[in-house]
Amino acid sequence: MADKSLFGRLQRLFSTNVIVRNVGGKKLKIADTDKIQHIAKNNLIDRFQKLYSGYGASVTSDAVHKKALRLGLFKDYESMDSDGIVSSALDIYADESTMKSEYGSVLEITTDNDNIKSILQNLFYDVLNIEFNLWPWVRNMCKYGDFFLQLEINEKYGITNVAPLSAYDVARVEGLDEENPHYVKFVLEQGGDQHSAYSTQKPHQMELENFEVAHFRLLSDSNFLPYGKSMIEQGRKVWKQLSLMEDAMMIHRIMRAPEKRVFQIDIGNIPPAEVDNYMQKILNKMKKTPIIDQATGEYNLKYNMQNITEDFFLPVRGGDSGTRIESLPGLSYEAVEDIEYLKNKMLAALRVPKAFLGYEESLGSKATLAAEDVRFARTIERIQRITVSELTKIAIVHLYSQGYQDADLVNFELNLTNPSTIYET
Q1: Omega of the bond prior to 271 within 30 degrees of 0, cis?
Q2: SS (H, E, C) 100-149
């Protein structure tokens, strides 16, 4: 007997992730909440996994390998987020994707049903507080490629609260039901500190149905399925190269940049056997300054920091040698062009116009900036489409919980404001 409870009906509603409703006559409206039509799945996943010999022998080995790869990527993303350019790019993605419209609203709700508009207005602006919460949701999605939002559903009132879930702890499971290949569920590790080697409490797993989780994911590369691909992934290799070049430059400047002095000391008629002792005596005298502690009266030889340990002391004799002190200039670093090349390459991978990050020297005119603004607007529009898709899923769950069915269930449209007025025209 079919489960007629709200959660049972929601499970059947989202069993295929594609909600089809007749909106009049022979017209259909489809809400593809999981972007099934967007990209192929199993064949590309199998192709990717079979590239790794030794994996694929069991579902467990594949899952462990995939989780290890994801955690390795997340480690790099955390390090990249501490970089000024990458962190600013992530902030710009979130800022531009969540701009307010001319009417002062972050999310535009369009429908011819006033009750549905009132319900969704209450859901997004009062329950979800989307004006404040959407910014970190979009930023985390751009950073990790995925963002998970757990929905707390009440049988009478619909969605009453949401809780963000860490991308480290959530696994998306697909393909468990042979009769329904589109069945999806999420596994959440709870309890204990599963990331600590000294944790005494073992984590336990909790399974969540598809309708209980909104999975924001950037679908652009099939090799990352069933998860999304981070916006900073394509710049990960270049960021490592740039970090190494910058570290090399800093080490070179610290170790090689200071000027060195050459002390040419006239040793006169000192016998060759005593030259070393004489030079050591001169070196100690110049490197250490005698001081007397006025409190204790102790005599101390304080190291003179003015002199650098890499100075050269050369004994000379005969002719017009005399004692001279010359300066050797520090070695110049000629790899700044290489760093500039890698920086430009990383900015191209992030797809953020230089002017947005303060690098305006390459912009010759306002027309160039406008053209870059339009190209960047397309990137922002792609992020907004993915965000709106999951917000639509949240709205459908809320409306279904409150008794809306058939055409009313999809009788609305959600839109985020595109930041480029030139792109819109």
Answers
A1: no
A2: CCCCCCCEEEECCCHHHHHHHHHHHHHHCCHHHHHHHHHHHHHHHCEEEE
pLDDT of 377: 85
Contact (Cβ atoms closer than 8 angstroms) between residue 392 and residue 33? yes
Give the count of alpha carbons within 13 A of 114, CB side only.
0
Instruction: List, in sequence order, every residue forming a beta bridge with 159; answer none if it has no partner.
Output: 153
Confidence (pTM): 0.75
* Coil vs helix vs strand at 176: coil
pLDDT of residue 44: 42
Angle (CA) 331 335 338, round 5°: 175
Distance from CA of residue 47 to its chain's centroid?
27
Interatomic CA distance for residues 137 and 128, integer angstroms: 11
Q: Are 95 and 404 in contact (CB under 8 A)?
A: no
For 52, phi then psi, to 5°, come to -100, 105
Query: What does R_g of the chain's alpha carbons equal in angstroms?
Result: 33
Could you say which DSSP state residue 269 is in?
T
Is 414 within 8 Å of 108 (Cβ atoms)? yes
Please list the residues that pair with 50 across neighbouring strands: none
Q: How many CB atoms lie within 10 A of CB 176?
A: 11
Strands 312-316 and 260-266: parallel
pLDDT of residue 53: 45
pLDDT at 367: 46
What are all long-range contacts of 25-29, with beta carbons under 8 Å and residues at least 24 apart?
29/407, 29/410
3-class DSSP assignment, residue 247? helix
Residue of 331, 326, 330, 329 lying closest to 313 (CA atoms): 326
| 39 contacts 222 by C-beta, under 8 angstroms | yes
**Regions of the chain short of the pLDDT cut 50:** 1, 42-48, 51-59, 192, 194-197, 305-309, 364-365, 367-368
CA distances from 146 to 103, 220, 376 (A): 30, 12, 21
Tokens 């920086």 appear where? 343
Q: Beta-strand (E) ranges in 143-203?
A: 146-154, 158-165, 170-174, 184-190
Closest C-alpha among 4, 115, 12, 17 to residue 393 = 17
Tokens describing residue 204: 């336990």
What pLDDT was estimated at residue 370?
52
Q: Give per-residue pLDDT as tens, 271-280.
A: 888 888 888 8
d(CA 231, CA 248): 27
Tokens of 46: 């199998």
Q: What is the DSSP letter of 403?
A: T
Closest by CA position to 159, among listed 10, 3, 8, 16: 10
- Given CA atoms 168, 169, 170, 176 in this order, what sign does their dihedral have? positive
